[in-house]
């Protein structure tokens, strides 16, 4: 009788978890936005077309350019060797070749990686939580997490890197909890390499993996086989960075970008860094009271709630060493981005590194930490279930509310009249245009239909895009707004 009851409970949980996963896929498409552009997204588009900081100078000084000249740069060689984050650009390059050169397809590319990330997260949750209803709950919390959703519709590499980070998490836990198999270690190292090369800020996750494995295994890790795997992995990484800019170059360039165009450099005290780190950690763990009332005391209480869950789980709820290890690891992986961002912000003297996209790699583990704690809290016979459910709702329902509210208001897109120009070119069959800068011509050309013939006149004295008909008569003038959209060039 009990076995039959357990089987029904297992089946119900499985159905709920699959339904939650499928619902998250549907939600991503239902909320699919009419894309506007933010920050450096045009830079991602241009690099996927083979025109980067490394080769754009060949067009400078010219007063007349054609679409054929730009299209010749759209090669695999340029995309891989000239781009700074070339793994993302390579995937995006091939996807656009197959799907068509429409701005919405660039967003679709990110949505596909978001779906893959949620799918990988499903398997990570099953590894940590078993066949529990909390697998589905964790998926819902991640799918509606404002940090995750902000990257799901962004033309950047973060959600793609997140997928590889989640997969690396699976092999990290498999390696340490399921017999330390060499195959799992090889997969872990391979996925860490891809994650780090995709975006260097995945380093805070990789660092936790390395420190944890060395702490658990100590000198036993340094077998001939493991040393060989480690050395080969390091060699591959060094080879990659011998032909690409290093993370140190990226940090330096990013710092200059922030300083010149966002004007948020200031003297960051230790107190400032700690305060913002607590806020960041709370949001990562889906405890988002600070989004409704951002006071220091709210940040502190939110952070202490995370610490309390950890201490209560460790002392009163979880007995087995292997299960305690999961709690330790999930806390470290969930909080490491905030610690890393705090140190980086203090070092660089700005708080830009607490932006959602920079901390996103910790979010799946942070969400999983909360669900793991409440799974054990609900299983504690001395705790009334209604109280446990009430605490869970109190902590995490604001995250769902914040998600809903974020889709009722404007996403705060930066104005970009280039999209207006691109739309009118296709609509009015324009094949000649005058623009103020080479970068205007590059970006406009990147989003025109495939094989679209266009001639660009560069007129630096103007601040407008001027469209001409086939008889060279002006048919429209569109003022171009200059901001951080294209400053990378």
Task: Please tell me about this protein's structure.
The chain has 489 residues and is mainly α. The protein folds into two domains: 2-30 and 108-406, no CATH class; 41-101 and 414-479, no CATH class. The chain contains 21 helices and five strands. The protein has helices at 2-30, 41-48, 67-71, 76-82, 86-99, 103-129, 134-143, 146-152, 158-177, 182-198, 203-217, 224-242, 247-261, 270-284, 296-317, 321-348, 356-359, 363-379, 385-406, 418-427, 438-446; strands spanning 64-66, 432-435, 455-458, 464-468, 474-479. The protein has a five-stranded mixed beta sheet. Helix 18 packs antiparallel against helix 19 (385-406). The longest helix is centred in the N-terminal third of the chain and has 29 residues, at 2-30. The chain is globular.
Weakly predicted, low-confidence segments: none
Q: Would you count the extended β strands for me?
A: 5
Strand order of the largest sheet: 1-3-2-4-5
Strand content: under 5%
Give the distance, in angstroms, between the N- and C-terminal Cα atoms.
69 Å
Number of helices: 21
Question: What is shown here, in short?
Answer:
The protein has 489 residues and is mainly alpha-helical. It is built from 21 helices and 5 strands.
List keywords for this structure.
489 residues; mainly alpha; five-stranded mixed beta sheet; 21 helices; 5 strands; globular
What layout of secondary structure does this protein have?
Elements: H1 2-30, H2 41-48, E1 64-66, H3 67-71, H4 76-82, H5 86-99, H6 103-129, H7 134-143, H8 146-152, H9 158-177, H10 182-198, H11 203-217, H12 224-242, H13 247-261, H14 270-284, H15 296-317, H16 321-348, H17 356-359, H18 363-379, H19 385-406, H20 418-427, E2 432-435, H21 438-446, E3 455-458, E4 464-468, E5 474-479
């Amino acid at each position: 009788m009990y076995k039959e009851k357990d089987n029904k409970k297992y089946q119900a949980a499985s159905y709920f978890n699959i339904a939650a996963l499928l619902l998250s896929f549907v939600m991503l498409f239902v909320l699919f936005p009419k894309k506007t552009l933010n920050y450096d997204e045009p830079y991602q588009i241009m690099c996927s077309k083979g025109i980067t900081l490394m080769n754009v100078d060949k067009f400078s000084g010219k007063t007349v350019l054609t679409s054929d000249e730009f299209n010749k740069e759209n090669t695999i060689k340029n995309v891989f060797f000239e781009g700074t984050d070339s793994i993302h650009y390579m995937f995006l390059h091939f996807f656009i070749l197959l799907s068509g050169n429409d701005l919405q397809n660039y967003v679709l590319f990110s949505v596909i990686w978001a779906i893959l990330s949620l799918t990988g997260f499903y398997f990570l949750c099953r590894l940590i939580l078993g066949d529990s209803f909390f697998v589905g709950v964790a998926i819902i919390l991640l799918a509606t997490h404002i940090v995750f959703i902000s990257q799901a519709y962004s033309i950047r590499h973060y959600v793609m890197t997140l997928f590889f980070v989640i997969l690396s998490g699976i092999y990290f836990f498999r390696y340490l909890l399921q017999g330390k198999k060499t195959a799992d270690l090889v997969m872990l190292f391979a996925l860490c390499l891809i994650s780090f090369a995709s975006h260097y800020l995945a380093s805070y996750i990789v660092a936790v993996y390395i420190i944890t494995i060395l702490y658990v295994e100590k000198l036993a890790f340094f077998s001939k086989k493991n040393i060989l795997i480690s050395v080969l992995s390091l060699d591959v990484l060094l080879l990659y960075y011998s032909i690409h800019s290093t993370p140190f170059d990226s940090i330096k360039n990013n710092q200059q970008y922030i300083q010149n165009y966002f004007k948020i450099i200031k003297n960051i005290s230790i107190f400032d860094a700690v305060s913002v780190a607590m806020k960041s950690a709370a949001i990562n763990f889906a405890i988002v009271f600070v989004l409704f009332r951002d006071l220091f005391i709210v940040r502190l209480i939110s952070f202490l709630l995370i610490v309390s869950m950890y201490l209560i789980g460790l002392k009163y709820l979880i007995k087995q060493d292997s299960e305690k290890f999961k709690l330790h690891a999930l806390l470290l992986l969930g909080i490491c981005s905030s610690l890393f961002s705090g140190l980086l912000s203090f070092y660089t003297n700005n708080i830009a590194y607490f932006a959602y996209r920079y901390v996103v790699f910790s979010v799946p583990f942070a969400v999983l930490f909360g669900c793991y704690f409440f799974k054990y809290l609900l299983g504690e016979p001395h705790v009334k279930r209604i109280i446990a459910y009430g605490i869970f709702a109190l902590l995490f329902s604001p995250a769902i509310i914040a998600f809903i509210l974020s889709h009722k208001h404007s996403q705060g897109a930066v104005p970009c009249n280039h999209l207006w120009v691109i739309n009118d070119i296709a609509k009015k069959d324009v094949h000649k245009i005058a623009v103020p800068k080479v970068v205007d011509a590059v970006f406009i050309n990147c989003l025109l239909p495939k094989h679209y013939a266009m001639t660009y006149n560069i007129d630096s004295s103007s601040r407008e895009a001027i469209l001409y008909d086939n008889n060279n008569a002006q048919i429209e003038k569109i003022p171009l707004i200059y901001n951080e959209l294209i400053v990378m060039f």
